[in-house]
User: What shape does this take?
Amino acid sequence: MDFLSKLGKKASEAYGATAEKTSKIAKEAKLKMKINENKSDIKDLYTEIGKKVYEKHVREENIDISTELEEECTKIDVLSAEIETCLKSILELKDQKVCPKCNKTIEKTSAFCPYCGEKQEETEATEEAKEPEAVLEELETVEIKPENETEKEIVKEELQEEIKEEEEKEKKEEN
Assistant: This one.
């Protein structure tokens, strides 16, 4: 009986993990479809703008963008914002973020960008996930561009100081 209950529990856990993964994949697929729809709509709007501009050119009229093309431009702005929101949602589903310096996709909990070496802003998730020792270890293994070497050393010193302070605090609490 114990074997069957363990087997059932393991099966339930596996099902839960699979269902969660499938749900994320389905959400990502929907978001990608929405992005593609919006890109197609933007392309259609570009075509419409081009037609209007060309018609004015053929008639040798001046075109006033602010009055004649404002609606199309506003629609493009809205669709572009939706695409950006979808892309951010996809990154959230994958537990990733974009480095603000080089715009590469990196892990959400990375303290430094593995591509450009830029120190990442700490978020609540990063603070919870990474102890100073782990960040220091990651800093030692990541390749940093020569122009960022000074910043790396400064951060390294700050982390070492933080680790020392935590150790001293723990020693005081033990006594």
In short: The longest strand covers residues 96-98. The chain has two domains: 1-94, 107-175.
